Amino acid sequence: MHKRVLFLAFEDPYRKELQAMFKVKDVPTIVVLRPDGSVLSPNAVEDICRFGCGCFGDWQESAGLIERSFMLNEEFDNLNLRSATEPVRRLKYKTEDDKRNKKWWKL
């Protein structure tokens, strides 16, 4: 079970009040709430059966608990990042590749 899950025993007297509040018709019923108390998913049993534990992350994202405005590490893998002074360094410090290119032109 997820670490931050609250549940109510079937014998609990508060069950009837919650059943009326969230309009529960079937057992089992899982009601997912946002931090402000509004209903995110009225019956999440189908979500859990279909997606498994992955639905917890989806609910957190939908509730606004996870910020997705950042770039993931994978998005930076193929970038060719160069410094602003690289063209000057290329002129000042010749590399082996530059020397090979010059030999080709002399032929």
TrEMBL record:
<dbReference type="InterPro" id="IPR029520">
    <property type="entry name" value="RdCVF"/>
</dbReference>
<dbReference type="Pfam" id="PF13905">
    <property type="entry name" value="Thioredoxin_8"/>
</dbReference>
<dbReference type="GO" id="GO:0005739">
    <property type="term" value="C:mitochondrion"/>
</dbReference>
<feature type="domain" description="Thioredoxin-like fold">
    <location>
        <begin position="3"/>
        <end position="39"/>
    </location>
</feature>
<protein>
    <submittedName>
        <fullName>Nucleoredoxin 1</fullName>
    </submittedName>
</protein>
<dbReference type="GO" id="GO:0045494">
    <property type="term" value="P:photoreceptor cell maintenance"/>
</dbReference>
<dbReference type="InterPro" id="IPR012336">
    <property type="entry name" value="Thioredoxin-like_fold"/>
</dbReference>
